[in-house]
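I am still getting used to backbone structure tokens and would like to learn alongside you. To get us started, please write out a protein record for me. Once you have written the record down, we can walk along the chain together.
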Amino acid sequence: MQIKRILALALIFVLLCPLLLYTETRLTDTQPVVIARGLICIAILFFTLTMGEIFLVGYFRNHNPRSLTGIYLATKGVRFIVTLLAILLYGVAQFPGVIVFTSNIFICFIVTLVFTTILHMKEESKNHKLS
């Protein structure tokens, strides 16, 4: 079951990143290589965070389901803090295309947040129906 979720997440990034690259290449003067470098880093970051969240929530769902609310909150908080740190580090390092990077990271943040929320809501409703 975890494999289906991870493949769905990978499909989201496979579709989202080229769409963002195409759109931002058309709308900004930023070099496509700069946009692509940022998108690769963002995709790896959010894929890793979301994959870790899927496995962590799955573990706690099986072993300690009463702590799921705290786990949900903690994973969303970690995602937010890591996003802010990534934006800060990118800005401090003075890489070109900070605005494009920030918009990409914001879009990926929202997309993965919605993905994990829907995923957890489906799991909770399925578990609620079983009990």
